Amino acid sequence: MLIIPAEKKVDWKRPPWMTFALMLASLLAFLLYQGKDPELTEGAVRSYLEAELDRLEAPLYQDYLEREISLEGNTDLQVTLDWVEYLKTEGDRVGLASIILSDQAFYRYLQDNRDLLMTSRERSLWQSQREQIQQQYISRLSAYEAGLMPSDLNFYSLITYQFLHGGWDHLIGNMLFLFLLGFTVEKALGPGRYLLAYLLCGVVAGLTHVAFNWGEAVPLVGASGSVSGLMGMYVAFFGLRKIRFFYYLGVYFNYFRAPALVILPIWVGKEIYHYWASGGDGIAYLAHAGGLLAGAALILLSGRGWFQARESFYEPEVEEQDEAFTREYARAMEALARMDFTQARQRFEALWQAHPDRPVILEHLYHLDKLRPDQPAYRQRAVALMHQYLRLQQPENLLATWQEYLDLAESDQPLPPEEHNRVLFAALRSDDLKLAEKAFARLKATGGVDMVREAGRLLAEEFSKRQMEPRANEYRMLLKGL
């Protein structure tokens, strides 16, 4: 069963660049750095078979596996033993050599016990040939150079192992989940803190794996621990809020809503169960569990600290905002239809506070205030609407609102000269000299000398451009008298 949080959607206006960068880094590491692995593996198998080391090691390897299973209780190796017996029966030397060379625990076992397991002649041949293969090929494989080795823990490998993968399926699976979860966490934290949190979760996941596999010579590679950390962070951001999850069970899939943090113990319990029931399938389930807990703890324990989600993260999605706006707008229009102007104004005011980018709301408020043009609210709303039309570059609407205000309220509540000046400029841009002169007349009656001179100069220039020199000269003479 697969459960993935699906509360947020990608905002392509602000792409998750750090998530893409992490995906690209993993892809490049796989193609460029890990691209040498097949050639190294092939070289190791070829040299191993040419030296006929399989004749010596295959019986010892089978005994080693049987001993580990019966005496050490390592039942996970039963699958490997069955596979070795099958390959021996089929005479598949290449397959058998590949398994033996990949088992570094067996190589260490031979190093520690070669005096007991081999004759002096066999030991001499083994040391000269096997160690050369180990140094020339095996130790240069990406998993051994940069993977996380529980038997040889170092700091840099706690970071580098997160960018290595065991094959295309492994890489594609991790990158898919990295994208599905990463864009949301990146939106919450921002790219810098997101990168740090991602790497920290990978470190904790790696240390968890090492703690339960101490001394093992099998390297850990993959971003799944880090990605699990993103899952933990995702649900921690929402806490006990109900969010949407996608689930997949067999061939059936659907969505459900649940308190976010309630799913965390289900995820952790699932990983622990698979760890005990897996039978040694090579998947680092406890690393996943460690990453999940690390991600959740990083957010929950930081309180209002450095890993607190940005406020914008909790804003509703665009679709949800549109649905809420449509719903409240309909209610406001219903109040208008009932001629309940008080309630309509209250609803439109609330909408305007929530959606100041919607000009239609301000237009409705303007028309409501226009019912009482003698009130100061109408003057304030007219000015606000004119400014909005100016920002939206709608000079025709601006001029129409100005003229309407002059007819209804200018005598009682005159507009400030700055508004007439703005109207003059808008009229000139609309090539409406008649309205420009009308605005100039209002400006001349109420404005300062400098403002009037500048407006008069512009009008004189416009009339002159149109070869209307008498009118241009009238304004020039007027300016001389100021």
From TrEMBL:
Membrane-spanning ranges: 16-33, 195-212, 218-238, 245-268, 283-301
InterPro entries to which the protein is assigned, alphabetical: Peptidase_S54_rhomboid_dom, Rhomboid-like_sf, Rhomboid_protease_S54
Alphabetized UniProt keyword annotations: Hydrolase, Membrane, Transmembrane, Transmembrane helix
SUPFAM superfamilies in the cross-refs: Rhomboid-like
Primary localization: membrane
Protein's organism: Marinobacter zhanjiangensis
Record-stated family: Belongs to the peptidase S54 family.
Compartments where located: Membrane
Membrane topology according to the record: Multi-pass membrane protein
Protein name (record): Peptidase S54 rhomboid domain-containing protein
ATP-binding listed as a keyword: no
Domain Peptidase S54 rhomboid per the UniProt entry, residue ranges: 155-301
Signal peptide extent: none
Keyword flag Transmembrane helix: yes
